[in-house]
Amino acid sequence: GMKLHIVYDPKADCPRVLDITDANVNDAQIGRTIAIEAGATYVFDKGYCHYGWWTAIAKADAIFVTRPKTSMVLAVRATRTLEAPKGDGFLILEDCEVSLASKGDSKLPVPLRRLVLKRDQGDTITLLTNDLDRSAVEIGQLYKDRWQIELLFRWIKQHLKIRRFLGYNDNAIRLQIFAAMIAYALLRIATRANAITIPILRFTDLVIQCLFQRKSIAAIDKPPPVNLSRPKPKISPDQMVFSYA
């Protein structure tokens, strides 16, 4: 099996970094290879648990938001007052500053903040971050927005023809996935460059239909222009006409 790793920018709605590895490669191992941008916020799930990487993110003046593993022991240092705890689809139950309470060699010399959220569906999740400035609701919304990358994977599988592979060796699978991601990126670039407002799925269908036509992308969803200088036919458009070669 193979695993696809993506750093996704939800504001630009486009992948920033992409890597394909064997299925047995640990997620955190790939995360540590990504160049950290100062001021950026990295949101990931508990599969990317690595204290050294989290520390590197904090030292680079960046922010991480994640879910701690259940085995992670945290000591509460201070409790924050909950102001306007209701978010979009969730409710903040707890907001406190914590530190790692492990007695082993594990170290995480980073100011930490733990949030407990209750979703409208009824389940409760715990978030861990080094962001001490944003409100609890803003941090909860950041993690909720992480779902967009799952929608990205679903969209690619459904509309970019990678449910079935043309070849089954390592190189063939990689090439097909990279081709699909390049197509996705080009579609997103085209929509932004031409201020396309129609849904991306409709735009994708129109691009497929017009691949071999000379047509402006900005006018891809509009009917062809009428040439007023062309003489009108002398016969009725409903009448059959015979042509001789």
UniProtKB/TrEMBL annotation:
Molecular function via GO: DNA binding; transposase activity
Residues spanning the membrane: none
One Pfam short name: DDE_Tnp_1
Key words of the record: DNA recombination, DNA-binding, Transposition
InterPro entries membership: RNaseH-like_sf, Transpos_IS4, Transposase_11
Single GO BP term: DNA transposition
Residues of the Transposase IS4-like domain: 1-186
Signal sequence interval, chain numbering: none
NCBIfam families given in the database record: transpos_IS4_1
Family according to the record: Belongs to the transposase 11 family.
Protein name per UniProt: IS4 family transposase
Lineage: Bacteria, Pseudomonadati, Pseudomonadota, Alphaproteobacteria, Hyphomicrobiales
